[in-house]
Amino acid sequence: MLGLRLCVALIAYPLLAYCCLPDSFQVLDLSHTLSNESLRWPGGSNFSFTILTRGWQNNNSFWLELNKFDTPEHIGTHMDAPAHFYNKGWKVHEIPADRLVGPGVVIDVKDKVFNDSDYRMTPADVESWEKVNGPIPKGAIVFMRSGWDTRYPNKKLTFNTNTPDNESTFHFPGFHPDTARWLIVNRNIGMIGIDTPSTDYGPSPNFEVHQIISNASVMGLENVNNLGALPPKGFIVTVAPVKLFDGSGGPVRILALVSKDGSGMCTTNSAGRLMLFWAFKFGLWHVLSSLWKICIT
């Protein structure tokens, strides 16, 4: 009798292979580059990058670069850990690894934002999206697309004010608190993300969305880039913060795995259908069936 794990691997691998071939998907970067131009909330410290060594060493026998950088947590494309607004919330190093990967969805409200820079995405926007795309999956990373990423890193345009060091003058879109609650209660999501500086809208006095998601162990992603390149659903998102001890957040590299043929990740895409056809044609399906019988007997 074969070991259960071996049997599962022998059966599952061919099935996964036909739908997850590396040449069947592309990887999209949803992050702005971290640099001296990166935007942060007023009052935070500045980012700095210092070259320690950069040049040929030991009589030009090898090249060596060594640098150091100093950065605030909440700068550029970054993640808010639950500890950011909840005293019992996860610090960055405490976030389970499986909460950093999940199915992604994009709810596009760019048209509504065009006439209202303080627009907040509503539960009705989510319901309209679901009528077309189906229910948001459990553990999803839900992005709100406003088109704001095209303003970055222009400080005045991004915060939408002539006084970007005065947060009381900010005007940019965000999630409505009711929407955050609805997504948490009804869809058990893993994260929310947005292409503006905050998951709360610009004029927010108490950062209610931050409080709601932090208390529910839901992470927030801010200053997300390139959401316009994503389909509404059917892609996988990986969020990679530095595993910072005791951190309340940090800069992240956000990557989206998107199927090239638009069929969604790990579904029967065109390459998968072709491989499945040949599997049936040559009787490989019967081999897999036989393996399964061996596993359970």
Jot down its keywords:
8 helices, alpha/beta, seven-stranded mixed beta barrel, 297 residues
Q: Can you characterise this structure?
A:
This protein is α/β, with parallel strands linked by helices. The protein has eight helices and twelve strands. It is globular and about 65 Å long. About 9% of the residues have low confidence. The strands form three sheets. The protein has a seven-stranded mixed beta barrel with strand order 4-10-9-7-5-11-12. A two-stranded antiparallel ribbon has the order 2-3. A two-stranded parallel sheet has the order 6-8. The chain starts with a helix and ends with a helix.
Short description, anyone?
It comes from Biomphalaria glabrata (Bloodfluke planorb). The protein has helices at residues 4-17, 110-114, 123-133, 155-159, 177-187, 208-215, 270-281, 284-296; strands at 25-29, 48-57, 62-70, 78-80, 101-108, 120-121, 141-145, 174-175, 191-194, 219-222, 235-241, 249-259.
Question: How does the SSE layout of this entry go?
Answer:
Layout lengths: L3 H14 L7 E5 L18 E10 L4 E9 L7 E3 L20 E8 L1 H5 L5 E2 L1 H11 L7 E5 L9 H5 L14 E2 L1 H11 L3 E4 L13 H8 L3 E4 L12 E7 L7 E11 L10 H12 L2 H13 L1
Parallel strand pairs: 5-7, 6-8, 7-9, 9-10
Antiparallel strand pairs: 1-12, 2-3, 4-10, 4-12, 5-11, 11-12
Q: Helix coverage percent of residues?
A: 25-40%
Shape: globular
Tell me how many strands there are.
12
Radius of gyration from the alpha-carbon trace, in angstroms: 23 Å
Mean pLDDT: 88
Strand content: 15-25%
SSE succession: HEEEEEHEHEHEHEHEEEHH
Structural class: alpha/beta
**Unreliable segments of 5+ consecutive residues:** 8-13, 267-281, 290-294
Protein name: Isatin hydrolase-like isoform X1
Organism: Biomphalaria glabrata (Bloodfluke planorb)
Signal peptide: 1-19
InterPro entries: KFase/CYL, KFase_sf
